[in-house]
Design brief:
The complex is a heterodimer of chains A (259) and B (420). Chain A has 259 residues and is mainly α. Helix content of chain A is 40%, strand content 5%. Chain A is built from 7 helices and 4 strands; from the N terminus they run αααββααββαα. Chain A has helices spanning 2-20, 45-57, 83-91, 123-129, 148-156, 204-219, 223-252, and strands at residues 94-97, 106-109, 173-174, 182-183. A two-stranded antiparallel sheet of chain A has the order 1-2. In chain A, strands 3-4 form a two-stranded antiparallel sheet. In chain A, α5 packs antiparallel against α6 (204-219). The longest helix of chain A is centred in the last third of the chain and has 30 residues, at 223-252. The termini of chain A are close together. In chain B, α3 packs antiparallel against α5, α6 (123-145) packs across α7 and α6 packs antiparallel against α9. Chain B has a two-stranded antiparallel sheet. Chain B starts with 10 loop residues before the first helix and ends with a helix. Chain B is built from 17 helices and 2 strands. Classes of the chains: A mainly alpha (259), B mainly alpha (420). At the A-B interface, α1 and α7 of A face α4, α5, α10 and α14 of B.
């Protein structure tokens, strides 16, 4: 039995280390304490709300978040704004709707059920406005990058003066965490760029952490429910396994053999 | 088989059973005499049945919400993750379930290799198993294409392009497979159809696999033929049922850990980027369970020969019962084979590792050596070993070593428990 455990764990280590090694370029990312890691990890609600503020005031001018709806902002396990707040947020956006009975498209204030309004009508428009580079949709961004939250968190703080031997084209910036170290996005954050509603000091580090937390939620809106259920499921399985183990011992005691 | 004499107790049961002997079947399954010395490596058959059923049930549920269209597939997966009740749970079970399925099937296959379960009279069980394994790979590959992420798209492009290596008709076959001139919507819809079909083919083959197993009965760690039923066997129910159940629960704890706490660790981050035919990912890698064969494919410089090598690596297993010339089944009594067995295990793990690495420099060299050794093991070492190896004395019955018969047998028993 002990050997079985050993082999099992070796196999799992091999598998997981294999998938880690897929990220070929090894860079040491900046680390911070993420409240949502761990067996019962939860989002820091205030950080999520600040993160939304960073997203909407800074990122949203170029990056869409097309899989999210305004209603999500009020849902459990998310930023949990009050419904009135979210209605106000949604109403502050102009949404194109229609066609109406005259066959005309019209604009109206956003509703809870609307998807996040996109900064550009389509990919081509986004590229045209950004020198050919497409600002990726942010809905699942942290899951779409090898380093996950640590990568995004580091990238936002990774802007540096380019070393002398690196030449940069117009509209290209140096970022030590970016793949190839060259990025088409100018440093989006600077100290005091926004004024947090809750009075938190808006340093680059603080804003990076908040917006990355928000992006983690947007990619995994049911993370808290998943952790809660997982904890219960595994405890349940361990208890059941123990009971079945002793039943098995009892049953097998009738024959001369080992289990 | 004693169950031919089985008669249900109730009148209704008798009436029914005379017309459709389902109760006889049920009686056969519960009474099925099983060697009592089976260790935990034998529990993976039950675990695999659980995996298959889990994949079918979660897959059916996902198919109710998934949209097989190049423009909507990615979005529909996000819809499942966000808005379908417990959609995230079902999808993560299905995605990680594939990995768990392969983890279990590899243990199952290597158990068979260690204890010689593929040898006479169990060749048909083994070949059915290899066909199931091939279908599993096809199903897993096509399933990975369905979310229509970057790795889906480019993985599909790479794998389907393998067929272009076939002389003369290759290009035509690839176009036919794609349903067009590149991987596109027609490819996605047919992959979805086949991904839906294959699990039911597997289910049918699993029935045959178990049927074929129930003719000679289970092999066992000692690898000898046993009388059934006898002192060496226990009825399947409750002995094996509870033991398989216990092992299954242990397996489910590992499974649950992945689903709830590391649901994306076995997948590739690029698959959360929607498929884009204009952008090729830096490294195109298959899922972990296909990596050893991917390494073999890339280790051959010629495209056609690479494909042939990769297919042979799997198909060679089908003729294994005839390549292994040893009369002794269990590696417990084959001191030399046992060492070569572990070298093979290491070889396959190394192939898996280099399969994930770029095919260049040292990695390529290692891949080539490991590929050569893989074939050497099956084509040269195994046939010769059967004639040359001096095997240990084999006990006459299971009860003997268990009850601590002769000193010779006791030592064999000790060796066996070390492997457990």
């Amino acid at each position: 039995m002990k050997n079985l455990f050993k082999l099992f764990s070796i196999l799992i280590i091999i598998i997981t280390s294999n998938s880690y090694s897929l990220a070929a370029e090894k860079v040491e990312y900046l680390k911070t304490d993420w409240s949502f890691k761990g067996l019962l990890g939860k989002f820091d609600r205030a950080s999520l709300q600040r993160g939304y503020q960073v997203y909407t005031e800074v990122c949203a001018s170029c990056h869409s978040m097309k899989y999210l709806s305004y209603r999500n902002l009020a849902e459990k396990g998310g930023p949990e704004f009050s419904e009135a707040q979210v209605k106000a947020i949604a109403a502050s956006f102009e949404v194109t709707d229609g066609p109406n009975s005259d066959g005309e498209m019209f604009t109206r204030p956003g509703k809870l059920s609307d998807k996040f309004v996109m900064p550009y009508d389509n990919v081509k428009a986004a590229q045209a406005a950004n020198g050919g580079a497409y600002p990726p949709d942010m809905s699942v961004l942290v899951k779409a990058r090898g380093g996950g939250v640590d990568y995004i968190y580091s990238l936002l703080q990774g802007y540096e003066q380019a070393p002398v031997d690196v030449s940069l084209d117009d509209g290209v910036y140096y970022n030590k965490y970016m793949y190839g170290k060259k990025i088409r996005m100018a440093a989006p954050l600077s100290d005091g760029l926004i004024e947090y509603g809750d009075g938190t000091n808006a340093t680059v580090e603080q804003m990076s952490k908040d917006v990355t937390t928000f992006l983690m939620w947007s990619a995994e809106p049911h993370l808290e429910a998943r952790h809660r259920m997982g904890f219960k499921a595994i405890i349940y399985l361990i208890i059941l396994t123990t009971l079945v183990y002793f039943s098995m011992k009892k049953i097998w005691s009738r024959v001369k053999s080992e289990v | 088989m004693s169950d031919h004499d089985y008669r249900p107790k109730s009148k209704v049961g008798q009436w029914f059973n005379d017309r459709l002997p389902l109760l006889t079947l049920a009686n056969h399954l519960t009474d099925y005499p099983t060697p009592k010395n089976l260790n935990y490596w034998w529990t993976f058959g039950g675990i695999l049945t659980f995996c298959l059923i889990t994949q079918i049930v979660t897959g059916l549920t996902l198919a109710m919400h998934y949209i097989a269209h190049a423009d909507m597939a990615f979005e529909s997966v996000e819809h499942i993750m966000r808005d379908v009740n417990y959609g995230w749970l079902i999808r993560y079970i299905h995605a990680n379930g594939a990995s768990m399925f392969f983890l279990a099937v590899y243990i199952h296959i290597f158990r068979s290799l260690f204890y010689g379960s593929y040898k006479s009279p169990r060749e048909i069980i083994w070949i059915l198993g290899i066909i199931i394994y091939l279908l599993m790979m096809a199903a897993a590959f096509m399933g990975y294409v369905l979310p229509w992420g970057q790795m889906s798209f480019w993985g599909a492009t790479v794998i389907t392009n393998l067929f272009s290596a076939i002389p003369l008709v290759g290009e035509g076959i690839v176009t036919w497979l794609w349903g067009g001139y590149s991987v596109d919507n027609p490819t996605l819809t047919r992959f979805f159809t086949l991904h839906y079909l294959i699990p039911f083919l597997i289910l049918g083959l699993v029935v045959l696999h178990i049927w074929a197993l129930h003719v000679p009965g289970n092999n066992n760690p000692v690898g000898i033929d046993i009388k059934k039923p006898s002192k060496d066997t226990v009825p399947f129910h409750p002995y094996i049922v509870i033991k398989d159940g216990f092992a299954l629960l242990m397996f489910m704890i590992v499974f649950a850990f992945f689903v709830f706490y590391a649901p994306n660790i076995l997948g590739h981050a690029d698959n959360y980027i929607e498929a884009n035919p204009m952008v090729t990912p830096a490294h195109i890698v298959p899922e972990w369970y296909l990596l050893p064969f991917y390494a073999i494919l890339r280790s051959v410089p010629d495209k056609l020969l690479g494909v042939v090598a990769m297919l042979s690596a799997i198909l060679i297993l089908a003729v294994l019962p005839w390549l292994d010339t040893s009369k002794i089944r269990s590696a417990v009594f084959r001191p030399l084979y046992k060492q070569f067995y572990w070298i093979l295990v290491a070889d396959v793990l190394i192939l898996g590792y280099v399969g994930a690495m770029p095919a260049e420099g040292l990695y390529l060299l290692i891949a080539r050596v490991a590929t050569a050794y893989y074939f050497l093991h099956f084509l040269v070492i195994l046939p010769i070993l059967g004639f040359k190896e001096k095997t240990l004395p084999v006990p006459l019955s299971i009860t003997e070593p268990v009850l601590g018969g002769s000193p010779n047998l006791a030592s064999a028993r000790n060796k066996e428990s070390k492997i457990e």
